[in-house]
């Protein structure tokens, strides 16, 4: 297959205008999933994709769900090499406020950017129609040049990603055998910067807890009971203050037991990244990193477990002042987890920690606000190194491994329901105005994105 | 004078039915100060008192204010002995919900209580018409028996106590020479228990502060910025947790510098009081005293300075969960002060304490929610010992010195505007349902209250 790669890349360059035309045709279908008025457009977008897949030799179908349909396609070629499942979504966000758009949101427009770049401006240009089409156009180039794809490919497109994916889990569960592959490919993440490609390999997990402390059985007047009666706000603040030590480490029993140090190679790569801690914090008005001492900011936000208090309330919070000692006080606390940490164990460690501070005459209740383990793509597995090399070759710059503190639910679903890891590669830029007026995708993201996938498919075939 | 006392007490006993008749006449005037519909009734109550005072030989007048009138009376006898100003109020609380009253609220009714006591049930029976009349009836008995009062007495009755006393301060300021006396007598406090009289000698002061901490200049997503960006809730809880040490002592610099230990005699008296710490806390569902180690609960709530967090809020406090790192978090904090502590100094110590924990990239703002110094009647002054002895003689049980954590604004006003200490003696019981339906005053409170004042007047004359 590798012998075809340079011809495939040449074809991609030569065919770029036609690729753009296809993308524009796709974008013009206003497939807004949250608005019932666009239900038929969502169906049209699904049908359009099914037709595209069939052109590329897939056995493809628009599959009904209680909501908007799924599109599933499988290659009919004899299985060879690894089997990948590519995931994307054809639905888009609403366009309001439409008066802030400089061009009609569903009429894709090429705009010359101030810095000389060219932007594709339209709703869905980046999220996720442009991104999804980078993969389909890579498949098209392979099919055109060599008559077949270098590896076995299946496809899953959904139409409810922007409205919470209610049909996705049931669909995965009902079709788990059909949709299971060796690895999932997800194209929904960002470049590191305009010129540096990135693979997101670490998704932190999350444990959400609400803790409520009750002291007296009613609100008290501080003049009558002050000091003598336990104040639940005071108790709560004292307990919460113990969650981190002076070095910013989380103090829960066993919290770090299953946490591994970052591999030296990754640490070194991150140290080489053009990341300025001061600028990162300056953008939100801060300048002093607040987390674990001796850890860089990138490591803190991508690869270290954390504890945050996300909400707290107790006593009188209106205008003015009341000298009340409240009966109750509560807080919402979350832990971001890294690979290896067991959410259930962390939740229990938190509850034990809080309980250990409770006086015998006060009570504490906990509320479980969900948990998900961290996910990470093994550095030494079969996917990461070939993909990194392919990206590095395409962009002429070392591709970086990235983490993300946020969650990408589909990746957890693939792992949990289908037992698949996911390779997250994306060509979006930070400033793409995804979900906002004047959403854009750089023409170079689209072009090099197609070429990148063409290279990754070849790399996986080796 | 003392030679008249036993005749005066006998007269009080013999005249009790007539005293009650006068009280009932007064109670029947529905002088609700908060409801404009009762404006004329308030004026009638003031006029009624003015007539009473004139009968007792006072030069008295109903004095206009922007609100309900004041009643001021002065004795015309040549000045001899100390000069006291008795304060009371003729207005009462509304009676809603009227359907919960067992008898008409403005038709005083004698009710046989389950324990054999007799209750005077009516709005104002305790607060403050019954209490106020104990003093007037004592004056009446002295006047009847000996033709004059044992000491020089002035009177101030207001009609806006239940609606925030808006006219009081201006009236005190405008008439400060006229109203200044050697000591004020205030009849608005409780007995220690059904059989033990009490003088309230300590009113704690109060400093109210609101502290708001700002970290990032916007709310952040904890997945993106968690750990690296300072969380103001975490910072606030850490700071608030430092306000008390492990022994429950307040950690502000110099907080205890001006705090004196309780005199040994008072400490011993309080130790003898039938006060059960467990029962006190049990009534609100607690059992473990939470304040300073090594200090009794009574000492904590009456005679020690405290710090309470009265309110706290930050981040997401609605249903469910949001992984936000908020920009701001705030708390309302109050300090109860004891005699000697300077509110301004305490406020500054608190602000300095908070500032000392602030990272350089975060900001804190403070809001002043008022301050008042503690007030206490000197144990070794001319008023306390004679009054205690008089009460002890009347009730056949050692009168106790009490503190109160709450504030009685008039006492601060007398001290600040007129330079007068106040002797707070009251005959109310805890269960008088003041401000509630079926307010009552024990007939024995009324009877022994009159006799107590008769004795105190005699004691001051010595």
Automatic annotation (TrEMBL), chains A, B:
Superkingdom of this protein's organism: Bacteria
Record InterPro entries: Cyt/Met_Dipeptidase, Peptidase_M20, Peptidase_M20_dimer
Gene3D superfamilies in UniProt: 3.30.70.360, Zn peptidases (3.40.630.10)
Any one biological process term the GO annotation gives: proteolysis
Any one GO molecular function term: peptidase activity
Keywords assigned: Hydrolase, Metal-binding, Protease
Pfam families for the chain: M20_dimer, Peptidase_M20
Domain named Peptidase M20 dimerisation: residues: 204-360
NCBIfam families for the chain: PRK07907.1, PRK08201.1, PRK09104.1
Name listed for the protein in its UniProt record: Acetylornithine deacetylase/succinyldiaminopimelate desuccinylase-like deacylase
Protein species of origin: Microvirga lotononidis
